[in-house]
Amino acid sequence: MKRYIAEGLTRYLDEFHSVWHMPGHKRKAIDSSSDYEDLKQAFDGERDALKKLDLTLDMLHKLDVTEVPGLDDLHNPMEMILESEKELARVYDTFASYYLVNGSTGGIFAAISACASHKDKVIAASNCHKSVHNIIELLELEAVYVSPEGFEIVDESIKKACEDNPDAKAVIITSPTYEGVISDIDKISRIVHEAGMKLIVDEAHGAHLPFFDTLKKYSAIYNGADVIIQSLHKTMSSMTQTALLHVMDEKLNLNIKKYLSVFMSSSPSYIMLLDMERAVYMAQNKSYEDYMAKLLLTREGLMGLKHITLLDNRKDFDKTNHSIRNNAEVTKDKVRNSFVNDPTRIVLYADEPIKGAGLYKLLSDEYGIVCEMSGLDYVVLISTYFDTDEDFDYLYNSLKNLDDNYDLYIKKIKNIEKESNQVYTFNANFKDKAYIERTVDIIKDLEGATAKDNIYVYPPGIYIVKKGEIYTKESIDVLISHVRQGRQLRGELI
Question: Is 363 in contact with 325 (CB distance < 8 Å)?
């Protein structure tokens, strides 16, 4: 991929400009003495941490430009951004691809708005990110929700939903999930298109898939989806809040462009644009053989642990096809033999009595391993091609040590809870047993009531109860389980 934005910005910054326009810092360092060498010395030496941060921000200011003559406009690209987005489409083999400067959320908003008008009907997976539910609410769409089996949205469920709702305009699903489970997008897309609908895939956790020879075939881009949204910051090298939107449908493209301008900032960051272009360039030109070899070797080692279990497609996980409402939680004996698991997503279960929150905190407190998130029964670790052999070795050795000393850790947890009024949880501000029990009592009283707000934990940001739904015993049990593990529920319960 040619780096058009980087080359164009370099040329512009090499020219003389007397800056009488935004941004207010005028591309000058707050500390006028700051330069690259100063920054390098600061990080190499023992300089005050705040000074290091200020120097870094000063360097970024020099790249923080706006839409002026000689540059380009993300909302109406005609030069470097236009050429760069054409390169994106070539790299990904799409009809059109767009940079997003407000994350996948902006892309999801634009995609759904482009496919469905006010008060139309859509079909959505109940394990979608909260952004999907938010735009459904904003557009006052009628949503029909499809529940996953285990972690996966299966084609049979989509087919039934399409048959029962032939007036729906679009189907929205998440693949891969937070846990790395990829649905059969090829089958689903055929069903959706036969029903005359559009398929939108939130592939935020799968931006890396197109660049791995063994994983590319699972990306929604190559399996018939109409619009695909990817977060470049989750599994690639770009900074937080960067994403891509891919369009495969020419007729849909004009509507997509319209709504991207509605939902994206009118002052997009060139720093983010630079970083996204570089991320795709790096991913396209990198070899992944050594990384994948070490990853798979580590996964193989983890499969041999006694008390820590790795989620994969082994037979011992294929016990039941169990539909869990809203994908709120799935225990290891209820995992469907899913279409495929992304091996870069490491999902670990611990034997009783250690739950997800306990395992999360043990890994953090005892080994300094900070996981991406925890569910009720598992933790999720994200691996990317920036993980080194040393990183993998440390992860495996730490988990092996935890596994070998599992009984001691169980005793430690029980002693903490026995000798104090504290719950062993990853949330330091939510550990008081009395407070937890009061909250549990409030939740128990909600059965049969109508939810006044969307209730969820973050991450993953998947609604457990949606606004307007009736609290059921099942949903209340899930909420109570989260609270007992020390998670703070988001949304107003009462």
Answer: no
pLDDT in tens, 175-223: 999 999 999 999 999 999 999 999 999 999 999 999 999 999 999 999 9
CB 313 within 8 A of CB 158: no
| Single-letter amino acid, residue 202 | D
Domains of the chain in start order, with CATH, are: 4-61 (no CATH), 80-284 (3.40.640.10), 289-419 (3.90.1150.10), 433-484 (3.90.105.10)
Q: How far is CA 255 from CA 199, 220, 394, 408, in A?
A: 15, 20, 48, 59
Range among 6-10, 138-142, 460-464 rated most confident:
138-142
**Phi, psi of 361, rounded to the nearest 5 degrees:** -75, -35
- Read off the pLDDT of residues 358-374 as tens digits, 9 standing for 90 and up: 899 899 989 999 999 99
Tell whether the model's pLDDT for residue 84 goes beyond 60: yes
88 CB contacts (<8 Å, ≥6 apart)? 1, 94, 97, 98, 99, 244, 280
Provide the 8-state DSSP code for 487: P
Spell out a b/e string for 142-176, using b for 16 or more CB atoms within 10 Å of the CB, else e.
ebbbbbbbbbbbbbebbbebbeebeebbbbbbbbb
**DSSP H helix total and E strand total for the chain:** 17, 15
Residue of 139, 144, 152, 142 whose CA lies nearest to 124: 144
CA distance 339 to 343: 13
The H-assigned helical ranges of 423-469 are 433-444
166-169 long-range CB contacts below 8 Å, 24 or more apart? 166/195, 166/196, 167/121, 168/120, 168/121, 168/122, 168/123, 168/144, 168/195, 168/197, 169/115, 169/116, 169/117, 169/120, 169/121, 169/122, 169/197, 169/198
What pTM was estimated for this model as a whole? 0.88
Residue 238 · residue 275 · CB < 8 Å: yes
Mutual orientation of helices 356-367 and 389-404 as an angle, nearest 10°? 120
* Confidence label for 37 from pLDDT (cuts 50, 70 and 90): low
